Hints:
Elements: H1 5-14, H2 25-45, H3 50-73, H4 75-85
Amino acid sequence: MALTKEKIKTLIGEFRVHEKDTGNTSQQIALLSEQIQVLTGHLKQCPKDFASLQGLFKMVGHRRRLLHYIKNENPDQYQKLISRLDLRK
């Protein structure tokens, strides 16, 4: 199941820095994390869906690169984002 428009709007609003902010790195990571969770659930039901598996790998790599960017630019924001999304323990 894909992300709904309402879920996308709530994620964008939750990670917004200012009123007209629609695509900062934190929002992109949050959206990718949500898509990864949805796709992981799909792949548990359909383990032979290799096209979706390839898309999952691409999303994980993109999120990893964005996290690396935030870690280099703003380490405090990186720590807040990691704890907020519960990505690493």
